[in-house]
Amino acid sequence: MALLPVADALAQVLASIDGPVPEEMVPLAACHGRSLARDLAARRTQPPFAVSAMDGYAVRAADCATIPATLTVIGESAAGRGYRGDIGPGEAVRIFTGAPLPTSADAIVIQEDTQALDDGRVEIREAPPVGHYVRPAGLDFAQGAILLEAGRALDAGDIALAAAMNHASLPVRRKPRVAIIATGDELVLPGEEPGPDQIVASNIYALAAIITRAGGEAIDCGIARDTRADVLRVVDAARASEPDILITLGGASVGAHDLVQETLSGIGLELGFWRIAMRPGKPLMHGKLGGLLFLGLPGNPVSAMVCAILFLAPAIRALLGDPLAPQGAPRHPAILGIDLKANDKREDYMRAKLTPRPGGLPLVEPFARQDSSMLGHLARANALLIRAPFAPEAKAGEPVEYLRLADIF
Ligand SMILES: Nc1nc2c(c(=O)[nH]1)N[C@H]1C(S)=C(S)[C@@H](COP(=O)(O)OP(=O)(O)OC[C@H]3O[C@@H](n4cnc5c(N)ncnc54)[C@H](O)[C@@H]3O)O[C@H]1N2
Ligand code: MOO
């Protein structure tokens, strides 16, 4: 059976997205992590006027060429309350950090290099070059300059910059809504008492965390039991929540109780692809259900999460207008810590432990057991070691690439 390569699968998922979700205005205090919908221009110049970077005296540098120089202090300039007037020859203004530079002053002498005299004069003991400790108008940015680009996920520094640009609220993309449906007769919710042959559903919560981290909003639609009628019931409820993406967990494989594809086909699913050359995550399904992007993730917890990292998170980023979405999760270089056998036809994402090494690339060591049901290993892992399809056997010390779980989780 020919399996679709991972890169082709990502390209197909992204090609099936119609365009970014609509934008909304959000107050700055709630913008952390949100995606900017439009390029943002500065509403003002910063600093709007020349200011002092230090506490001291504003002077004309030429008056201090010969030191010590004695100047007459004619007033004070404080932040928010500048000195109105000019400085003449032989004059100085007491000044504080952030205060406007008086006209004709062209340098600051820090107060440690001065001595205030009793008669209202000041002795200057260091000759300042022109412009010393002066922040000229526009040092940071000029009005009209585009400082933040559309598609960017706003971090703390971006938010400070947007505030300084005088934006009280920002145009950001609405959070893409992702409806999650778990499937399986064996599942109970955490905290419930599992019956005979039952286990606790874990995927819903992991997926919700990955969705939130990618910038989306997770909608938990509960568990569908393994009947067509129940899958349809939960899918109807999920569609009523008006998601941008619908995901199912489990029921993606070939077993008699794997009903998802068959059931959704009955209500108009246009299947894009099913089964990809990846481990874990082979049975991934993709399609459109009445305009809604559909991803059917495998039930094994690690498989579901790896599919979410590689396909769902980039789909959310694409809906947020992120120009980097097609690149998928960022890959980093490392050095292999152990010998590995040759790989088969599936691109492998191995749970691994990354150890920093002083002065060199980190060492990455995959766990010996890579069963896609094992959450203990996943919690101990901090990396996914990537192995290309048909990679030949590899020796410890060779260069490899990995995904950093802290980037995604
Ligand atoms: N004959 C074959 N069998 C299987 C194949 C195959 O190609 N031929 N593929 C295997 C692979 S690879 C995977 S991955 C799994 C995926 O199976 P499904 O997507 O159909 O998932 P289920 O059978 O429903 O569940 C698999 C496993 O995961 C547990 N599960 C399901 N949902 C959750 C949840 N929300 N939280 C925690 N655990 C969950 C479920 O109990 C099963 O143990 O198929 C292989 N089989
Ligand atoms: O691909 Mo399954 O996802 O090997 O466990």
UniProtKB/TrEMBL annotation:
GO biological process, alphabetically ordered: Mo-molybdopterin cofactor biosynthetic process
Cofactor(s) listed in the protein's UniProt record: Mg(2+)
Alphabetical UniProt keywords: Magnesium, Metal-binding, Molybdenum, Molybdenum cofactor biosynthesis, Transferase
CDD domains recorded: MoeA
InterPro entries from the UniProt entry: MoaB/Mog-like_dom_sf, MoaB/Mog_dom, MoeA-like, MoeA_C_domain_IV, MoeA_C_domain_IV_sf, MoeA_linker/N, MoeA_linker/N_sf
The MoaB/Mog domain, residue ranges: 179-318
EC category: transferase
E.C. number(s) listed in UniProt: 2.10.1.1
Keyword Electron transport: no
Pathway terms, separated by semicolons: Cofactor biosynthesis; molybdopterin biosynthesis
GO molecular-function terms, A-Z: metal ion binding; molybdopterin molybdotransferase activity
Recorded catalytic activity of this chain's protein: adenylyl-molybdopterin + molybdate = Mo-molybdopterin + AMP + H(+)
Family statement: Belongs to the MoeA family.
Role of this protein: Catalyzes the insertion of molybdate into adenylated molybdopterin with the concomitant release of AMP.
Protein name per Swiss-Prot or TrEMBL: Molybdopterin molybdenumtransferase
Organism: Saliniramus fredricksonii
Lineage summary: Bacteria, Pseudomonadati, Pseudomonadota, Alphaproteobacteria, Hyphomicrobiales
